[in-house]
Amino acid sequence: MSHNVVDRRRINGPQRSVEPVYTTKVLDPFATGRLDERALDQVRPIFIKTGPLDAQSLSAAAPSGSAYYEQGKIRVSCAIYGPRQGRKSNARMGSFDCDFKYAPFSCSWKRSHIKTSDEKEIALMLEHSIAPAIRLESYPKASIDAFVTVIESDGKAATIAAAINCISAALADAGIELYDSVAACSMALHGEQW
């Protein structure tokens, strides 16, 4: 039997290995600015469009309003359905429900299409931040539903802020009565600088 048999089911390693070089010096990633070459006080460029999902479907399942939001490498879409028949028939005020999900390809931490507890928690945060701005007393016995999909993410806090801005624009596109539109941003403290 030959000793030079190659197992084709395995990936063979290199013939010669090199010891890794360990650096003890930790570099500050924000020393010369951000990784995307923005200054520390510079905002990501923003693009927003309302109504992109309305034109795509002509069926009865078309959303009442929709919005697409880009902020740097973050891309979020939102569809608003409602006001429609609510779950509680004797409610004096309407309800606002939010569904939030990351697309499986949107970020490195999302691996499957199954809803995670993190997405449920973010959906609850979005409901609590947007619901006070909606005039729910104008919609008794009704439900307003927002479906948010993150197409591309560049950090969790910035993605949540972008989702809030996208929902606010989609609600305005749907013609839902609001006290005011909701705006959000994310910030970080690096040393002494915000």
TrEMBL record:
Protein name: 3'-5'-exoribonuclease
Organism: Coemansia linderi
Gene, per the UniProt record: MTR3
